[in-house]
Structure formats: structure tokens, C-alpha cells
Design brief:
The complex is a heterodimer of chains A (about 150) and B (about 400). By secondary structure, chain A is α+β, with helices and mostly antiparallel strands. In chain A, about 40% of the residues lie in helices and about 20% in strands. In chain A, a hairpin with a 2-residue loop joins strand 2 and strand 3 (about 55-60). In chain A, helix 3 crosses helix 5 and helix 4 packs antiparallel against helix 5 (about 125-140). Chain B has two domains: about 10-30 and about 300-410, Aspartate Aminotransferase, domain 1 (Alpha-Beta Complex); about 45-300, Type I PLP-dependent aspartate aminotransferase-like (Major domain) (Aspartate Aminotransferase, domain 2). In chain B, the strands form five sheets. In chain B, strands 4-10-9-8-7-5-6 form a seven-stranded mixed sheet, sandwiched between helices. Chain B is globular. The two termini of chain B are about 40 Å apart. The chains are: A alpha+beta (about 150), B alpha/beta (about 400). At the A-B interface, helix 1 of A face helix 12 of B.
């Protein structure tokens, strides 16, 4: 089934099996926990932010392939970038997955565009967005675990 | 398996369920989630439609013929439930929205009234959230103690531990007859008889039992028994609380309103007799009638035939699933009902669920409203295939083929 191959693209499978930045950060300035109660997906996210830039980012946790790959690709996408850009990426990523009108992914999403197929599986959108909600929670320093609800 | 049981004419039965002929994602529907909610036979759908088209009016009120007729149909459904459970009296059958509401009714009426701080409620580690949370709410409100009997690695109750948890303050034992998450059939007969010998009230959650096996509440001796209509091929929104009349009579009403009173003045209200005391407001009339039709349907097939058919499916599924590489069945109790829970090494259940969905196969992936069971077996979630009387060996084959596809994608 072609839809399924759109969802489980090689990049996603690769990052779910070999997640990047999958470790804990000892010297972090920001951290947050994410939990999707529906799936049981959980992750811990750590950030080292210096002068408005995300110097380092890492995560640990357990979840489905979509959530794990999304977290892994997110850490690659935002590492070394200004916080403002990371927030902007979150907005674009969120729109890509949840907007009713299908549109081509903006260029600056780069590799994150592999998640376009998730749009066809509404119950899985939260799996892909959980790491991003957790990132925003960490940056906002809310101290509350990020939820997908 | 009793070989003398009449065999099911599975093609005829499948034709009774209109939804089973539809396709999903251009594939024939393979519905393996009846433990969550079962599909409905035409007889149930027709009974609900006939009610609204020709027999509907509010019950227990009208002096007019149509209301009396609707009342007779509604009370007729109650009698069908009584017969199904072999309760002594139809006044012991309380219509509720589902098993969840039935348990909450017992907790809020019997529990709140009769339990004192320090009194203990004993449940098992296999309970659905609906038989955990109402007691936790009561614990937080009344200061009762909630105790949980452990299960072993097979998912069976550890009897000596269970027995050891019963003490002088144990006032209620509330257990599932069949665990919804992993299918263990609990020894409820043994549990109830032990409880009775010690004067402890019992509640049995029969949600996953009633669709698969004959239940006799008098022989069992349970004080309370609950089940949901929608798992018994009936409508959602209707369920049953059976209670022994002696207990129900002693309990205060739970909800106040119309239909549950004898007389009301601003000074004083006299409550109605059983069962109406616990049925405030207009009930789900058509759904109760639909449940009656579901009971007729199940009786028409017979529990012996259903049990034999489902035992065959379970044995076949166990054999076929054991041949799938890296698959581990969660819950290997000696007595299991129509539920198989499993995990695939390296693939999260939600990914399995999505890929199987692409094949038109409906399974449940998640914690099955039994998170403590997942914790016990140290898995975040499982894939659960559950069977109803309409499932076939071919559908088990489709599941296995789907799992090979999962392995292919995640190879």
C-alpha cells in the first residue's frame, strides 16, 4: 500500500531504529518531559541554550517509530540554530501536519518534510508533534510535561 | 473443546452482521476488536429501528397505549437480561449506561454508605481502569484502603497472595471475570465462595465474559455483577448492574430525579422500589430493547456453539502467531477467553496497528484501559486481537499475513 510507504519512509525507519542525539545532556539549561497518554509515548528532552542559540540538544525515551524518528530529526534540525528559528520550524511543521488544505512542505523544513505522509493518518499526527511540543515546553520553561492533548 | 457442540454456520452468521461485508481501505474488513466493542447483527439494528418507527414513547408514565406498549417492551428486555444471568428476580436487574456506570453506582451508593475509613476493597492486578478508578475515588473521599492482588508471569492470579490479602477489614472483593487486556479467565467461582465464607461482598465485572460464556449469578453467588451491552453485540449506552435484592434494597439511591420516586414534596421524597430506585431519568429505552434483541440472538446460536468456535479460533491463533518471528504473547494463562495480546520485538504496537489498518485489519494497539497490566509485564502497550462469534480462521491468517508485512517494512 503506497500510503504506508509514504508514512514509513526510509528516513523515518532509519531514525527510529538509530535515533540521533539519543542520550542525556548533563549540562542542560532547559529540559522538559513529553507524554502522549493515548499511545504511551514518552520522552525526556534536554537543551543547552547559549546566547539565544541551541548549542546542544538530546533526548531519551520510548515510543512508536513516528515519535522516535520525529524527535531524532527534530534534534538534528534545530541543533546550532537560534531559538527563534526553532520556534518558526515548529509552526511550519505543525501546519504541514494539521492544515486542512494540503500544501507542499516549505523549503526550510528540509528533511522534516518526510513527515508529510503523517497527514493522511490523523491519529498518528500527535506521535510526530509530541517532540516538538516538548521542545516548546522546554524553551518556555513551563515546568509542566508537554502533552499532546 | 466439546466436540459434541453444534458447529456454527459461520457464513450465515457473518451474513447477519451487515458491517462485515464492507471494505476498509479497499480491503475486506477484518474485525478483531470485539473486546473493545462488538459489531451488531441485523436483529439488533432492526429492533432499535422498529422501536423508533413504531413503538416509541416514554415509559412508566403514560396512560396511553403507546407508552404502555413501550414500557412492556422495555421491561421485557429486563426480563431477558434476568434470564440471561439467571437472576432470581427481574427487579435485581438495574439498567445503566454500561459496566463502568454499574461499578460507579456500587461504589457511590453501597461503598459510600457502608464503607468506613480503614475498610478494605480488594481488586486484582488485571482490572480494567473502570474497576480501579471508582475505588480510588472512594479511597480519596472516605479513607478506605485499596488492595491489589498480584498476578504471575503467565497472567494468572497468585492464589496464596490473593488469600493473604484478605483480612478482617476486607469488605468488598471486586474482580473481572475475564481480563480485557490479556484474556485471563479468573477463578471467580473460587473467589466468590471464599468471600462468602468470610462475609465479604463481591462484585464481578463480567464485560468480557458475557459475550463468550453462560453466566449464572445465583450459582456463582456474586452480590453484584456488571456487563455492557455493546460488547454483547448490543447497542452502546446500555448496560446492566445485577445486585442481590437484599443489598440493593439497603442501598441509598445514587442519582435523584424522575422515575426513581414514589412521591415528592419539598419536605420529603419517598423513593420507588427496585429497580426504579436506581433508574433516575428517562433511560435508553430503544437501546435496552436492542440489548434484549442481542440476547435473543446469542441464545439463538447458543453459548456451547459460541464457546467451541472461539476456542478453536484461540487455539488456531496461538499456533499461527507463535510462528511469527520475534512475536511474544503477553498473558499465557491456562484458561483464556477470546483475547490474545502480543508484542513484536522492535516494533511499537501503534506502528503495527497502522500497518494492519492498511490491510483492513482492526486490532487494538495500546494499554487497553489497563495501564497497571502493561506495567506488570513491562511493556508500554500491546497489540490485542480479540474474537467474536463471527470471526474466522481466514481472518487469523489475514492477521498473520499483516504481521509479516510489518516485519517487511521494519526489516
Amino acid at each position: 500500500m503506497s500510503d504506508l510507504r509514504d508514512l514509513y519512509q526510509e528516513v523515518i525507519l532509519d531514525h527510529s531504529k538509530r535515533p540521533r542525539n539519543f542520550r542525556c545532556l548533563d549540562a542542560s539549561t532547559h529540559e522538559a518531559k513529553g507524554h502522549n497518554p493515548l499511545c504511551g509515548d514518552r520522552l525526556n528532552l534536554w537543551l543547552d541554550v547559549e546566547g539565544g542559540n541551541i548549542k546542544d540538544i538530546a533526548f531519551q525515551g520510548d515510543g512508536c517509530a513516528i515519535s522516535k524518528a520525529s524527535a531524532s530529526l527534530m534534534t538534528e534540525a534545530v541543533k546550532g540554530r537560534p531559538v527563534a528559528e526553532a520556534r518558526h520550524l515548529f509552526d511550519e511543521f505543525h501546519h504541514l501536519l494539521t492544515d486542512a488544505d494540503e500544501h507542499a512542505p516549505p523549503d526550510d523544513l528540509e528533511k522534516l518534510a518526510v513527515f508529510t505522509g503523517v497527514r493522511e493518518f490523523p491519529v498518528r499526527v500527535k506521535c510526530a508533534t509530541l517532540p516538538w511540543h516538548t521542545l516548546i515546553a522546554a524553551l518556555d520553561g513551563a515546568g509542566q510535561p508537554a502533552k499532546t492533548e | 473443546m466439546n466436540m459434541a457442540s453444534p458447529a456454527l454456520d459461520i457464513a450465515r452468521i457473518r451474513a447477519d452482521f451487515p458491517i462485515l461485508s464492507r471494505t476498509v481501505r479497499n480491503k475486506p474488513l477484518v474485525f478483531l476488536d470485539s473486546a473493545a466493542s462488538a459489531q451488531k447483527p441485523r436483529a439488533v439494528i432492526d429492533a432499535i429501528r422498529a422501536c423508533y418507527e413504531a413503538e416509541y414513547a416514554n415509559i412508566h408514565r403514560g396512560v396511553y397505549w403507546l407508552s404502555q406498549h413501550a414500557t412492556e417492551r422495555f421491561e421485557g428486555a429486563r426480563e431477558k437480561v434476568r434470564a440471561l444471568l439467571n437472576a432470581r428476580d427481574s427487579r435485581e436487574i438495574i439498567f445503566v449506561r454500561g459496566a463502568t456506570e454499574g461499578i460507579n453506582l456500587v461504589a457511590q451508593s453501597w461503598g459510600r454508605h457502608f464503607l468506613k475509613p480503614g475498610d478494605e476493597v480488594l481488586i486484582t492486578a488485571l482490572e480494567h481502569h473502570s474497576n480501579i478508578v471508582p475505588w480510588q475515588m472512594l479511597r480519596d473521599e472516605k479513607g478506605i484502603v485499596l488492595k491489589v492482588a498480584p498476578v504471575d508471569d503467565a497472567g494468572e492470579l497468585i492464589w496464596p497472595d490473593f488469600e493473604a490479602l484478605i483480612g478482617p477489614r476486607t469488605k468488598l472483593i471486586a474482580v473481572a471475570q475475564v481480563a480485557n487486556s490479556i484474556g485471563t479467565v479468573l477463578p471467580v467461582e473460587q473467589i466468590v465462595s471464599l468471600a462468602k465464607a468470610r462475609g465479604i461482598v463481591t462484585l464481578v465485572d463480567g464485560c468480557q465474559a458475557v459475550p463468550h460464556m453462560a453466566v449464572d449469578v445465583q450459582a456463582l453467588g456474586a452480590d453484584f455483577y456488571v456487563f455492557s451491552g455493546h460488547k454483547l453485540y448490543g447497542p452502546a449506552g446500555i448496560g446492566v448492574l445485577y445486585g442481590r435484592a437484599e443489598l440493593l434494597n439497603a442501598m441509598p439511591p445514587w442519582q435523584g430525579g424522575g422515575d426513581m420516586i414514589r412521591s415528592v414534596t419539598f419536605d420529603k421524597t419517598e423513593y420507588a422500589d427496585l429497580p426504579h430506585k436506581f433508574e433516575a431519568g428517562t433511560p435508553a429505552i430503544a437501546d435496552a430493547i436492542g440489548l434484549g434483541a442481542a440476547i435473543d440472538y446469542v441464545n439463538g446460536i447458543g453459548y456451547a456453539a459460541i464457546a467451541a468456535h472461539e476456542a478453536d479460533l484461540m487455539a488456531y491463533a496461538a499456533t499461527r502467531l507463535n510462528q511469527v518471528p520475534d512475536l511474544r504473547v503477553i498473558g499465557t494463562a491456562r484458561r483464556k477467553s477470546a483475547v490474545i495480546s502480543f508484542v513484536l520485538n522492535g516494533v511499537h504496537p501503534h506502528d503495527i496497528g497502522t500497518i494492519l489498518d492498511g490491510e483492513g485489519i482492526c486490532i487494538r494497539a495500546g494499554h487497553h484501559c489497563a495501564q497497571p497490566v502493561m506495567d506488570r509485564f513491562e511493556v508500554p502497550a500491546t497489540v490485542r486481537a480479540s474474537f467474536g462469534l463471527y470471526n474466522t480462521r481466514a481472518e487469523v491468517d489475514a492477521l498473520v499475513a499483516g504481521l509479516h508485512k510489518v516485519a517487511e517494512i521494519f526489516a
